[in-house]
């Protein structure tokens, strides 16, 4: 199989690229602005990696789409701080540029495996979010936090329409809080530079107060990236076309925890790293409203739990990595002995 990965240096992209090269005989062509996460793979005989911006390499991308059997457009803005700070940039990257890639795939007859998002469910009140029955409910227009979810949802719908009208083969997958080693750099102190776990871990490593937005009551289902990549490989393999035209929630309902519980778990596991034994005694947990922390364009949901029967029944996939193992692997990968 020939696979084109746009965003191969990102969190999902670099884990997927490594898994494809080590667990299959498939060929990969890849593009990203950053290559540090996959630097050890750049000499692999089945990988052709190009460094650069998706906008500056439109002709190259077009040629690779015609070469590829399947394309994964993984380039996206994926931090709430960015949604609020730069909603237009979020829309341009997450919708406009990906739409161009998807249209090219439809014209070339190339299959698309597209990263939708658990965010598309928005403020859904279902106990579990189902790919085919749950409503996708968002807040007011002036809450720019929802522009990411709206961009993803709209592109999901366009992809489905392209399938109906132009025969595009596709699969949508919705990651539910994938995390683990290599998510973001916890040692980068820039505000909004990291997602939840590495951001919290960075504050703890630097002995800074750890802010719990709205008290950390929000609950999420944290999924180890290795479980997610296992599901993605099954989607790519696609025996008998089982994943064609399907949407898959990919998350771990057994790992539902509050943000406060995440903070407490990180403190517990960081204390096991030499030089950080004092963290349980010195860590400071502060509470701040989402409006004060992110700005007036922010809004949040209290729970986000995936129904995963589609993935179980059609892909034979079940997540197996528990919450404590997820936290431990993240901390051990990122926290350097002091």
What do these coordinates show?
This protein is of the alpha/beta class and 338 residues long. The protein has twelve helices and 13 strands. It has helices at 11-23, 58-67, 80-85, 87-108, 147-166, 196-205, 225-237, 259-270, 279-282, 290-294, 309-315, 323-334; strands at residues 2-6, 27-32, 47-51, 70-73, 111-115, 170-175, 178-179, 210-213, 219-221, 223-224, 246-250, 256-258, 285-288. A seven-stranded parallel β-sheet has the order 3-2-1-4-5-6-11, sandwiched between helices. A two-stranded parallel sheet has the order 7-10. Strands 8-13 form a two-stranded parallel sheet. α1 (11-23) links the parallel β1 (2-6) and β2 (27-32). α1 crosses α7 (225-237), α2 (58-67) crosses α4 (87-108) and α4 packs parallel to α5. The chain is globular.
CA-based gyration radius: 20 Å
Tell me the number of strands.
13
SS summary, helix count: 12
Report on the biggest sheet.
Answer: 7 strands, parallel
Proportion of strand residues: 15-25%
Succession of helices and strands: EHEEHEHHEHEEHEEEHEEHHEHHH
- Report, as a whole number of angstroms, the end-to-end distance: 45 Å
Instruction: Give unreliable regions as ranges.
Output: none
Strand order across the biggest sheet? Answer: 3-2-1-4-5-6-11
Shape type:
globular
Query: Which percent range fits the helix content?
Result: 25-40%
Q: pLDDT average, as an integer?
A: 93
Structural class: alpha/beta
């Amino acid at each position: 199989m020939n696979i084109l990965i746009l965003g191969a240096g990102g969190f999902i992209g670099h884990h997927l690229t490594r898994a494809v090269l080590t667990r299959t005989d498939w060929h990969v062509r890849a593009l990203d602005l950053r290559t540090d996460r996959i630097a050890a793979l750049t000499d692999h005989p089945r990988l052709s990696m190009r460094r650069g911006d998706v906008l500056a390499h439109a002709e190259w991308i077009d040629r690779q789409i015609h070469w590829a059997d399947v394309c994964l457009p993984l380039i996206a803005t994926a931090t709430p701080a960015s949604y609020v700070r730069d909603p237009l940039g979020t829309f341009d990257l997450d919708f406009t540029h990906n739409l161009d890639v998807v249209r090219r795939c439809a014209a070339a007859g190339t299959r698309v495996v597209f990263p939708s998002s658990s965010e598309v469910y928005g403020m859904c009140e279902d106990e579990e979010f189902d790919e085919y029955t749950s409503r996708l409910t968002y807040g007011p227009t002036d809450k720019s936090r929802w522009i990411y979810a709206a961009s993803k949802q709209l592109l999901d719908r366009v992809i489905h329409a392209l399938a109906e009208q132009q025969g595009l083969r596709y699969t949508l997958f919705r990651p539910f809080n994938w995390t683990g080693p290599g998510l973001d750099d916890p040692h980068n102190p820039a505000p909004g530079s990291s997602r939840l776990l590495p951001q919290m871990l960075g504050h703890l490593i630097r002995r800074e107060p750890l802010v719990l937005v709205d008290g950390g009551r929000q609950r999420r289902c944290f999924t180890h990236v290795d479980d997610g990549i296992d599901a993605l490989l099954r989607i790519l393999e696609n025996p008998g076309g089982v994943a064609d035209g399907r949407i898959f929630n990919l998350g771990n309902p057994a790992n539902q925890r509050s943000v406060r519980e995440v903070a407490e778990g990180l403190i517990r596991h960081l204390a096991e790293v030499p030089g950080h034994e004092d963290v349980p005694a010195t860590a400071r947990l502060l509470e701040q409203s989402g409006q004060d922390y992110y700005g007036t364009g922010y809004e949040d949901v209290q729970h986000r739990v995936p129904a995963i029967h589609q993935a179980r029944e059609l892909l034979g996939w079940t997540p197996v990595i528990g919450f404590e193992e997820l936290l431990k692997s993240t901390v051990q990968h990122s926290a350097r002995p002091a």
